[in-house]
Specification:
Helix 1 packs parallel to helix 7 and helix 6 crosses helix 7. The protein is globular, with a radius of gyration of 16 Å. It has seven helices and seven strands. Helices cover about 40% and strands about 20% of the residues. A seven-stranded mixed beta sheet has the order 3-2-1-4-5-6-7, with helices on one face. With about 190 residues, it is α/β, with parallel strands linked by helices.
Length: about 190
């Protein structure tokens, strides 16, 4: 199975997934796609020998740009690992139940438009939540609204700052995201 990882930022999850499946005989990270040319995830992918592509917002909206790229790399499954733009319907339609996202909170809390990265951790802190975590879910046209595949939680203290919350969530991402993907891919 050839996967594409879509990213917008530094790419720690992206690198973790690439490394996890590096010696796999059934999953290959065939492509890393970013909407930002300065995303450090692209450098991480290149260092690990994975081809990369930059797809601008305008190009993302154009099926004649993105679909040939995904076909060129024989992509079977798409993993969003910190990809900020909404995935266009034409991609969702072409990959039914074959696009997953990781969200840095326990959906349905703290999800939806504008809820990404530090914004989520600040919202968790402002809400006074006693726990947070990660949600791995299928991608649908509804932002953060797809069926939940797995959730993992961590306890918070009243003294935790948004940075502390981010660090706790990051531990969960590194520990669980690749394993959940592996289990999901094995079931296909």
């Amino acid at each position: 199975m050839n996967i594409a990882i879509f990213v917008s930022g530094s790419g720690t999850n992206c690198e973790n997934i690439i490394r996890y499946f590096h010696d796999s005989d059934h999953v290959r990270t065939a492509l890393v796609v970013s909407n930002r040319s300065d995303a450090y995830a692209l450098e991480r992918a290149r260092r690990l020998g994975v081809p990369t592509a930059i797809v601008t917002k305008a190009q993302l909206a154009d099926p004649q740009t993105v679909m040939p790229l995904l076909r060129e790399y024989s992509i079977d499954f798409i993993v969003l690992a910190g990809f900020l733009p909404m995935v266009p319907d034409y991609i969702i339609d072409a990959f039914p139940r074959k696009i997953v996202n990781i969200h840095p909170a326990l959906l349905p809390r703290h999800g939806g438009k504008g809820m990404w990265g530090h914004h989520v951790h600040e919202a968790v802190k402002a809400a006074g939540d006693s726990e947070t975590g990660i949600t791995i879910h299928y991608v649908t046209p509804v932002c953060d609204g797809g069926e939940i595949i797995a959730q993992f939680s961590t306890q918070l203290t009243p003294d935790d700052t948004p940075d502390d919350i981010a660090a706790k969530v990051h531990v969960l991402e590194m520990q669980h995201f690749p394993q959940v993907l592996d289990k999901l891919f094995s079931s296909l």
